[in-house]
Amino acid sequence: MTCGAVYAVVEATWTVTGTTVPFTPHTPYSPVVQLILAGLSVAAGLACLATRRQLDRPGRTAVGGALILTLPVFAMGTTGLPAYFVTLAAGSGLESATGLAHVLLSTALTAALALVALSYRRRLAGTCPRCGQKHTGGHDAPLVHPGATTASRHTRRLACLLMCGTLPWAGAKTIWTLGGDALGITAEKWKESNSGGSEMAQELAEAGIDVTVLAAGLGFLLLTGLMYPWGQVFPRWTLVLSGRRVPRLLPLIPAWLTALGLSVYGVFLVIYAPLAALGVVPAPELDTDLGATLSGTLWLAAFGGMAFGGLGFALLAAARSYSARTRPVCATATTPEAPPP
Description:
The chain is mainly α. The protein has helices at residues 2-17, 31-50, 57-76, 81-89, 97-124, 153-163, 167-177, 187-193, 199-206, 211-227, 249-277, 294-325; strands spanning 22-24, 27-28, 143-144, 329-330.
């Protein structure tokens, strides 16, 4: 309820004061859309408040419908989170403070709605709203966490296969940073187009490392942590934290939120590139500063879609496995059901 109220107040304030909130780098949210989002956040907050009460069938339908409607709307507002993360990590500065604030508000509200919806669904199913298991006793007992385990072989293979989609995109970026030509774009043009970046990004490029490829590497690090025991218990190199249990939501929240944006954007690019090549949809504007050709631009879009979509879906698969393997059970559970594979 609190997240929804804060979101509504901020959106209404931006609308009244005429503050520009970017939807894309060149397209802002319209005041009407901002007011609609504010109204939906109020409806979401009221629905969350209603989940605490005993409702009849029409009431349950209304609450469930409100959660189902609002959750994907606010989840779409989180898709810019990876881009802001890469920009800030590269030291390139903040493009839009209001844009970042909007993404963070959408992220917080999406996470809150997802947790409330999960708890409400479990309550309707007659299971414990905390652990999702059927057991006797109260729901306020301490939680018992399972030991550290490795993801199944199927999950590991699927994640590795999906991560292979990053190779063409990362290969092209690495060729440019190392001084080679690829997809009709020369290394000199590529360096000129990125000359306005941060000093750290330029130093990495001099060493043959593209900052976006480095960000993908951090995503791969998160992916491996979700699949192996060191993502559940802090390893030795973490010093003070060594041997302690990793908070369950610490890797899950960034994995879910990052994976959502990457998956949607990746699927869009993979579909768009061949349709643009066939003339079904308008072709993208060519970057004259890069000297890019239409075929090279479409190939780069396809490679980007494979990379973003591959990493996004790999994170979703690994996060699903991690969530099932680390799900705690109330200490009062007498006949806990086995977690889903």
